[in-house]
Amino acid sequence: MPPQVLSINQIQGSGAASPVVGQAVQTSGIVTLLKTNGFYLQTADALVDSDPNTSEGIFVFTTTGPPLAAAVGNSVLVQGVVTEFKSSSQGSEDPSSLTEITGPAVTLVSTGNPLPAPIVLSGASIN
Known about the structure:
The protein has about 130 residues and is mostly beta strands. The chain is built from two helices and six strands; from the N terminus they run E-H-E-E-E-E-E-H.
């Protein structure tokens, strides 16, 4: 079964957890930050939705270092499975989790793209 083609904000959804947890998805965006176990992907400015309840960024968990295609400023296509990650440091009474894409296949679309504008979170947007 082919993955659903969704925007990052559709994957994130407007609730506390993704509406497509456990499902295979395909999305695209600009790589904004590399970590030792993955990278952050953000929607290009021209494609941002106007809903303050949905996120325009997502973490792509690669287990080890990100693939070469995932350089900061690169536009990439990602296919993987949506999961909700809960840190082992969170208490059992803390229901929060972070949506991420796991087991990704990453395809380079273009290089040298401007980074999307940062999205400032207020106290109201975090609750």
